[in-house]
Amino acid sequence: MAAQRRAECGCLTKKLATRSKAPPRTRSAERTRERLVEAARSVFAKHGLAGASVGDIAQNARVSAAMINHHFGGKLELYRFCLQGFGELRLQAIDKHLVVPQSQEEFRIRLEMLVNELFDLHVEHREVVNILLRDLDVADQWGKGIEKLLYEFTPRFSKFFELAQQQRFIRADIAPIAAASMIYLTLAGLLQADAHRTRVTGLGLTDPSHRALVVKMVIDVVLNGVVERGSGSQLAT
Q: What pTM was computed for the model?
């Protein structure tokens, strides 16, 4: 019996040892992938798909270039992986707020919450935003699935305005996709120029209070316009 118990204990010890070795290898592989993605975002943002080299990405990630093929299958696949994750996060942010508003006030509050979340997402993934802006002329290399995923953002965002329009909370003559595009392109432009603006003015979008003020102003302009109401005058169109 004693011999049998020792044998069983020996087997159990071997199994536990095997299990304890597996997680570190898994964690190491995950860390390598994370470093590669982080490095790739930086290099692609600076040089674009065409100008980025496998060597630069690997050097920034502090791994061998062979790891890119091992984990992703190549530079193009790594590039697409960076875009795909960002595209999915944007759609998830919109879907979370995409409900029929019951009042104008609810519509405005939900819109402000959505735009703030999108802004946070774009600030957090600023390098991917720069990649998209830089590489629009090579969008055919994004792959049909990812190109469709990224394109879906604007019509999905415009759905937010369509729902409010159906409830007669915004004017019937407003094109929802135009309102959505105005907000998104304004935010994208602000992000692109943020580093320069921060150096000149000291105010940047990484400051939560300043970012909240910018979001509020953008929404006010889109929903209320810039012409003073009740002034008795009307701008020529």
A: 0.77
